[in-house]
Amino acid sequence: ATLTINGIFSVSYTSVIDAYSKSNIPHAAKRASEILHEMEERYALSGETDANVKPNTITYNSVMNCWNKHQNKADGLMQIEHLFQNMTRLSGVSIDNKCESEQCKGNREDVTPSVITYSIVMSALAKSDDLNGADRACQLLERMIEKGGSSFNTRPNSFSFSAVINGYVKRGQPEKAHEILLKMDDMHERGLVDPGVRPNTIIYTSIIDGYAKVGDSNGLKKAMDLLDLMENRYEQNSACACPTVNTYTCLINGWAKSRQFGKAQSAQQVLHRMISKYEAGNKYARPTVFSYAAVMNAAAYSDFGDMFEKQQSLEIAIQAYKELKVASRHAKYGADCVANNVIYGTFLRACGRLIPAGKARESSVETVFRKCCNDGQVDDMVLRQLRNAATDEQFQRLVGEEASKVKGTKKVSTKKHNNYQPYISALDVPHDWTKNVVANSAKVTQR
User: Rounded to an integer, what distance in angstroms lies between the CA atom of residue 12 and that of residue 302?
Assistant: First the structure.
């Protein structure tokens, strides 16, 4: 009835499976399935009388959880669905309101799917590459809601709703995710779910991010409306709806990636709104350097407008930089909220895209780059943006000559290797220029 390890001590099958489900051991899911299969075989051989080897809902859930963490999502989903079907067959539970003789012949109540079972299946469907995965997960949620009134064990919890919401957001369908949020909210208000099951910060932010990534005017409006709702509920002492820096920054990034006129101004307004809420007492809305970088990025990519739009966007980029410098001097938002390689690279991008070629651009580019060098924040991203914004002669003067000294050659080529990467890299420039760069920080504002 138990596994003996090294002949010294024994542990229950389910405990071993549970340990596998919580581990990162390669092939843990396969091994857990093998143990479950062995349990079922031994239970059958005992004439279904040996309770020591009888799998229950917890056993199946642990195996399914193993497969839900499996690297191959397709294999994991297939195994989870197979286990789920076994549970419904053995327990006699119908999942589609049909009770065919083969499906409902079982009577093992101890393997009846629970809310955890359903949630694991929905999570696997939502994470899968199946185009209909979110819709299939939603169908299971609807089935849980139907059964929830009569069965506490299958009443949806927060994880059930969030799995479906995340599935729709992943597939670029924030409207459907929003519908699930409204259903969740309605069920909470009507007392049809546990008191703690209600829309929370993570769920709101996920849908806002989904709308923001769509990037059209309708989606951004809905994202702003959801932010309004979060702020109102938080101000009414609903801590679970607290907007965080991630909530605001997702929305700023949405404006940055959109093709809407006035997007730089809209992004700036969201930043100032976040700052206002932080100063009013929401400690989770503290801006980061990437919040400022996102506003500057929105400005940099406003180059499709007329000259007035470009000038206004450039002023917004400059203002964001100045506000960050003032905040960093007083450590208003923490020691790490300072101008870094992302800020300088994005600022150079704005100069190159918003200022017409000529002396004004050359002067701005040189000023920004010199400050970047003084702060030790030069990296490959900064050099790429400098190469795009500067003339060949200016780039050679600012970088090529110093790189030649570092490499010990008469001259280093400053020609573009391709559209993005110059021959000169951060390894070719003086160490003082790069000494304060934090690895991987530039990934945040890559487009």
Answer: 63
Query: Which residues on neighbouring strands pair with residue 5, listed in sequence order?
Result: 9
Residue 443 confidence class, pLDDT cut points 50, 70, 90: very low
Candidates 314, 311, 319; CA nearest to 300 is 314
The identity of residue 186, as a single letter, is D
Task: Return phi, psi of residue 43, to 5°.
Answer: -65, -40
pLDDT for 69 equals: 86
Are residues 129 and 73 in contact, defined by beta-carbon separation less than 8 angstroms?
yes
pLDDT of 433 reads: 96
Burial of 365: CB neighbours in 10 Å, binned 0-12, 13-18, 19+: buried
Amino acid, res. 57: T
DSSP 69: T
What is the total residue count of the chain?
447
Partnered with residue 416 across adjacent β-strands are 422
DSSP class per residue in 314-353: HHHHHHHHHHHHHHHHTTTT-TT-S--HHHHHHHHHHHHH
Instruction: State pLDDT tens for residues 13-48.
Output: 888 888 888 888 888 999 999 999 999 998 899 898
User: Mapped to the 3 state alphabet, what secondary structure does 385-415 carry?
Assistant: HHHHHCCHHHHHHHHHHHHHHHHCCCCCCCC
102 pLDDT more than 90 = no
Rounded to whole angstroms, the Cα distance separating 58 from 18 reads 9
- pTM (2 d.p.): 0.85
**298 within 8 A of 310, measured Cβ to Cβ:** no
Amino acid making up residue 379 = D
Predicted confidence (pLDDT) per residue in 116-143, tens digit? 999 999 999 999 999 999 999 999 999 8
Distance of alpha carbon 208 from alpha carbon 221, whole angstroms: 10
* 3-state secondary structure (DSSP) of residue 399: helix
Q: How far apart are CA 95 and CA 122, in angstroms?
A: 13
Residue 208's φ and ψ, nearest 5 degrees, are -60, -45
- Which position has the token pair 């410098």? 325
What's the rounded mean pLDDT across residues 109-118?
A: 92
Q: Cα–Cα distances in Å, from 343 out to 76, 272, 314, 337?
A: 41, 18, 14, 11
Show the tokens assigned to 396: 């050679």
